[in-house]
Amino acid sequence: MIMNKKLLILLVCFMGTSWFYAQGPGRERIKTLKVAFITERVGLTAKEAQSFWPIYNEYEEILEAIRRRERVELRSQITMLQDLSNAESSVLLDKFLIIRKEKHEAEQDFISKIRTVISPKKTLLLLKAEEDFKKRLLQQMRKRRGGG
Asked: What span, in angstroms and rounded, lies between the C-alpha atoms of 97 and 93?
């Protein structure tokens, strides 16, 4: 499916503030590729894209904030897992469950919002496109590192 140039320009315009949060040219390029990939796989019309991308970008920002917290609150302590007491491990486990719940709630909120602007079938295509994009990105990273 060949993407209409007008639609691509429209999509870039609607990416909004998320462009400003990109850290470096690599990250910006990945976001651009992801937009094109999702648009093509889901088959967004220009009208759908106008409503879709602000909701999607908000969801991505929420997830990124949760991931940042996860890195700070969990991953930094996991390296010292063997040295943690039961009480410290319990606190860490509670934080893990809270973060997992926040991710789940963010996803539920996102799906309930997004299904008001695209059909249920396109919503499912979106979820599959996101997974496919992640897989493709990981494959590319492995190739570049000589691992595959």
From this structure: 6
Per this entry, what is the length of the chain?
Answer: 148
- CA-CA distance, 42 to 74, in Å (whole number)? 34
**How many helices and strands (H and E) does the chain possess?**
7, 0
How many Å is the maximal CA-CA distance in the chain? 58
pLDDT at 75: 78
Residue 49: DSSP 8-state:
H
114-135 burial, b at 16+ Cβ within 10 Å, e below that, comes to beebbeeebbebbeebbeebee
Task: Say if CB 23 and CB 14 are below 8 A apart.
Answer: no
Q: In whole angstroms, how large is the CA radius of gyration of the chain?
A: 18
Least confident piece of the model among 12-26, 51-65, 89-103: 12-26
Residue 118 DSSP one-character state:
S
Q: Is the pTM of this model over 0.70?
A: yes
